[in-house]
Amino acid sequence: MKTPRRRARRGLFITLEGIEGCGKSTQTKLLGEYLRGHGYATVETREPGGTPLAEKVRAVLLDGADEPVAPETEAFLIFAARRQHVTQVIEPALTKGAIVLCDRFSDSTLAYQGYARGLGLSTLRSLNRLATHAIEPDLTLVFDVPVATGLARRRSQADLNRLDRETVQFHRKVRAGFLDLAKQHPQRMKIISAAAAQDRVARAVTQTIAPMLNRYRRRGAEDSMRSRQPSFHSLQVRHALR
Ligand SMILES: Nc1ncnc2c1ncn2[C@@H]1O[C@H](COP(=O)(O)OP(=O)(O)O)[C@@H](O)[C@H]1O
Ligand SMILES: [Mg+2]
User: Fold this and answer.
1) Cα–Cα distance between 134 and 170 in angstroms, integer?
2) Which CATH number do you get for residue 90?
3) Which ligand lies nearest to the CA atom of residue 48 in the structure?
4) Considering the domain boundaries, does residue 195 fall inside one?
5) Phi and psi dihedrals of 46, rounded to 5?
6) Contact between residue 7 and residue 99 where contact means Cβ atoms under 8 Å apart
7) Domain range holding 22?
8) pTM of whole model > 0.70?
9) Nearest ligand, CA of residue 150?
10) Long-range contacts, stretch 119-128, CB < 8 angstroms, 24+ apart
């Protein structure tokens, strides 16, 4: 008998992770365009955020106001936003069979609030299971650049947020955290060197996702044969809050 969770996972869940300025938002957009161009129903979203309520939490989190923010406060706000996002956007899209591209997800919480802020990883993982309904990405792309490169890219943009202004040491811990997580989950997490030009990074992304995309396409074809319905891949869906 199928579990409810398996039924909810007809789609494909891809997360894009890495330090500030590594190119996550750029590559989310490029990958979304690529997938839609190939006829895949694709939902682009981001964390913290992705729903009106969660976007308000994002604004609170990234606000540069002077009040110090305790690491636990930061974590609880992120989990609250994630819970909302998973229920409202990610689960429904996966149930419909879409490809969900999420700019940051659970690994960011482990890298930032765990490795960099020092909260316990096992506590964060427990709270995360509650926040995600135990949904895990099928694939996580970790865009890796030296901290100096990432920060230089971000600092050339106008809208610096509270996290961009953290110390170089902090961002080094975040980067090391992502690399350590990738070592722990080599099947799910793929490191993509992101120091090259955008189009070269985008090519590395499409090469990396190709095997999973082939499996997803085959699964879609089998589903539509069984149900004699048009494949959900022929749908065109765009959801983006940016
Ligand atoms: N491969 C790249 N080479 C040079 N600049 C890049 C590259 N990818 C993104 N950028 C630029 O760097 C800045 C940060 O990129 P962005 O995608 O917003 O990073 P992130 O979402 O990871 O913080 C943007 O101005 C973007 O245009
Ligand atoms: Mg971004």
Assistant:
1) 28
2) 3.40.50.300
3) 2
4) yes
5) -150, 160
6) no
7) 8-234
8) yes
9) 1
10) 119/71, 119/72, 119/75, 124/75, 127/75, 127/79, 128/79, 128/82
CA 38 to ligand 2 center in whole angstroms: 24
Q: In a mutational test of the pocket of ligand 1, which residue from 47, 144, 153, 205 has the highest number of ligand atoms less than 8 Å from its CB?
A: 153
Q: How many domains does the chain have?
A: 1
Per-residue pLDDT of the chain (242 residues; tens, 9 = 90+): 343 444 445 899 999 999 999 999 999 999 999 999 999 999 999 999 999 999 999 999 998 778 899 999 999 999 999 999 999 999 999 999 999 999 999 999 999 999 999 999 999 999 999 999 999 999 999 999 999 999 999 888 767 888 888 899 999 999 999 999 999 999 999 999 999 999 999 999 999 999 999 999 998 877 766 665 544 444 444 444 43
Report if residue 1 sits inside a domain. no
* Ligand 1 neighbours by CB, cut-off 6 Å: 18, 20-26, 153-154, 157, 194, 197-198, 201
Residue 192 lies in a domain: yes
227 CA distance to ligand 2 middle (Å)? 39
Residue nearest to atom 24 of ligand 1 (CA): 153
Is residue 142 domain-resident? yes
Residue 183 tokens, joined:
């070592």
H or E element in which residue 205 lies: helix 198-227
